[in-house]
Every structure is written in C-alpha cells, then in structure tokens.
Design a protein that fits this description.
- This protein has a single domain, classed as Growth Hormone, Chain: A (Up-down Bundle), CATH 1.20.1250.
- The protein is mainly alpha-helical.
- The protein is globular and about 60 Å long.
- Helix content is about 80%, strand content about 0%.
Length: about 400
C-alpha cells in the first residue's frame, strides 16, 4: 500500500512540476520560436496558460468519471504515457501551433489529479481521508518548489532541456506505477460512464443535487480564487513594493512551497487531531484572513520574506474541505467528486489572475489615486470572510 501511495503522490508531484518547469524558459522559448519581442511573448504565454486551465476545467470531470468506470490504474498510466509524449512534442516544437497543441494535451493530462485523489480516497479509511488529501497538497507543494528550480537549472543547457527531463520523469513514473499500482475500483464501486457525469456542467449539477455538498463546493471555489493571489501577483507585488530581484522572488516562492509541503504533509495531522475537520477549516480561514491583511500593508522586505513561509500555516482548508466532501460522497462517485473539484480549481485559476492583476494594476500604476500594491490581498481577505459566512451559516438540514 505504501508503494501505491508513493506512486500516486509522485504522479501529483510530476503534474505540479510540469506547471512550473517551463516558466523559467517560456519567455526565451517563445521568442526563439516566433522571433518576437518580450511584450508579445508575454501575451502568447498568457494565452498558453489560459488554454491549459480551460482544458483542465473541461476534462477533469471526464478523467475522474472515467476512472470510476475503467479504474484508476489505466487512467493514470495512460495519462503518464501521453504526458511523456506531449513533453517530447514541446521539446521539438518549432511553431506556435505545436506549442498550443501541446498545452492543450498537457491540460488534459494534468487533469489526472482528480483520478489520483480518488485513488487516495479508495485506499483510505474515512477518518484518514483528510490527512491523506493533505499529502496530495504536500506533493503539489513539492512540485511547486522543484518545478521552477529544475527548469531554471536545466534552462542553462538550452530552452528544450526541461521538456526532455519532464518526459523522462513521466516515463519512469509510468513504469514504476505499472509494477506497484493495483486497481482500487471494485465491481461494487464501478459506475457507468454517462454524458451527465463527464461534461463539467453536468458533473457540477450531479454533485449539486446533494444539498450537503453544495456549500462546501462553493467554499472550495471561493477559497481557490482567493489563495491563487500568490502565484497571480506575487512577482509583481514584491517588485513594486520591495524592488526584489528574480532570485529573491524565486527564493520566497520556494520557501512558501516548502512550508506548504510541511504543513499539508505533516502538521495538518496534528491540527485535524485537535480541531477536527470543521475546526480546521475555521482555523484556516481565520489565519488566512490575518495573513492577507499583513501582506496588504507590509512595507519592509525583510519582514515580508520572513513572513512568507508562515503564510502556509493557513493552507489546511482545501484538504479539510476535501475530507468533508469525500466522506459525504458514495464510494462509487469519488472520481466524479474529485473531477468536479479539479474543474472548480481550474475555473478559479482562470478567474483569479484576471481579477488580481487588474486590482494590482489599478492600485500600483503611476496614476493610482492610492498607491497600494498589496490591494489584491485585501480582495483575498474579503473572500475569506465570505467563505466564513458560507461555511458557518446553518443549512436547512442542520436546522432540522
């Protein structure tokens, strides 16, 4: 079972690494392919990011529901195989259409986190699920640290080197999974594949029909929009407020990723044991509210750098909410649930950068009425308060 868990978590790490692995070389790669200035390369990079997130939104329910029907093992292994081929395409791409095609496929293969999380639910006891979902968050955090770090190092050997490395990692993990990953879906929990469960809107409606899950799903979405403020504006915010270099920005993000991995991989077990899932959600929302207020107004770069890893102490809400929802979902619908959560996260990934960068531009521009680069964190703070209201307001069922 430990080898199975190791394979699943390694898959999540590789998925997460794929996001950050290409970031250090993307500007140079786009300029190399199109012979265009940096400003235009940024526009193409934004379009590629949007395409990636859209594919995750549309295909996460398909991947999750397919794993309910055909099993977690074939879905994960096939996705890793396609992922390896996709990275090889990016490594030899000589035109923008090839990059777009590759990112379309990458968005689909990255949607395997829904199947991976469902597999975690399959092999976990009800009381273990929240802590195990914390391990998924820790794996994502590790990938968040290793991806940009490895991409930057390999980028010194050429813009294509990181893609060859990613293809090799996906292939090795596929081989590892082939030997250690058993099928976790049984005949009792296997479900037919239907259109209502595979299209994202139908999958959302299916989950929403369970009134117990509606509010946690809304809370999950709002929380993701708020928490994505870090990757959305951190580089811009720290440059405008503190004048940090690229190296300092990278170091701060790495410290955040390491701290998040430690919190979701270990500390969350202590918090869950003491507070329970409901108390953990409340604690996380309160702590994040405080953290966002501090970041909005902090003016000392040293204090901001020291405070950055501490902000990860609030990164316990997502696994706790996943644990609550998973326990309230039938065993034959775990893949569908995780697919819906992945799609909700993808929509948040589309919305949050647009929202947060617009607010940043409004308060950090030369003609800003009030110079406050940390304004996006106040938006996130407000969303935390909305999340608290959503979570604490009793439902009709609770009144009954």
């Amino acid at each position: 079972m430990r080898l199975t868990l190791g394979f699943i978590l390694t898959t999540v790490v590789i998925d997460s690494m794929g996001i950050g692995l290409i970031l250090p070389v993307m500007p140079a790669l786009l300029r190399e392919i199109g012979d265009i200035p940096l400003s235009q390369a940024a526009i193409w990079g934004g379009a590629l990011t949007t395409v990636f997130a859209l594919m995750q939104f549309f295909f996460a329910p398909i991947v999750g529901a397919s794993s309910d029907r055909f099993g977690r093992r074939p879905v994960l292994l096939i996705s890793l195989f396609v992922m390896a081929l996709d990275y090889l395409v990016m490594a030899v791409a000589g035109a923008f259409w090839m990059l777009f095609l590759a990112r379309l496929v990458a968005g689909i293969t990255a949607a395997t986190q829904s199947a991976a999380t469902a597999a975690i639910a399959d092999i976990s006891k009800p009381e273990e699920k929240a802590a195990r979902f914390g391990l998924v968050g820790a794996a994502f955090g590790i990938g968040f640290v290793l991806g940009p770090m490895l991409g930057g190092i390999l980028g010194e050997y050429g813009t294509r080197a990181p893609f060859y490395a990613a293809a090799a990692l996906a292939t090795l993990n596929m081989v590892f999974g082939y030997f250690v990953m058993p099928e976790t879906v049984t005949d009792d929990t296997r479900r037919p594949l239907t259109w209502a469960r595979t299209n994202p809107f139908g999958a959302f409606a299916s989950v929403a029909r369970n009134p117990v899950l509606t509010r946690p799903l809304l809370l999950f979405f709002l929380y993701q929009v708020a928490f994505f403020v870090y990757p959305a504006v951190w580089a811009f915010f720290t440059t405008a407020r503190f004048g940090w270099s690229e190296g300092m920005i990278g170091a701060s993000l790495a410290s955040f990723g390491v701290a998040m991995a430690l919190v979701q991989g270990g500390l969350i077990r202590v918090i869950l044991a003491r507070l329970g899932e409901r108390g953990t959600v409340i604690y996380g929302l309160i702590f994040n509210t405080f953290a966002f207020i501090v970041l909005a107004f902090v003016s000392n770069g040293t204090l901001a750098l020291l405070f950055t890893p501490l902000t990860a102490l609030g990164a316990v809400v997502t696994p706790a909410i996943q644990g609550i929802m998973s326990r309230q979902t039938p065993d034959d619908s775990q893949g569908e649930l995780q697919g819906v959560l992945a799609s909700a996260g993808a929509v948040a990934t589309i919305i949050s950068p647009l929202l947060m960068t617009s607010v940043f531009s409004m308060f950090a521009g030369e003609d800003a009425a009030i110079f406050l680069p940390g304004a996006p964190f106040l938006v996130s703070m407000a969303l935390m308060l909305v999340c608290m209201v959503v979570f604490l307001t009793p439902t009709r069922h609770q009144h009954a």
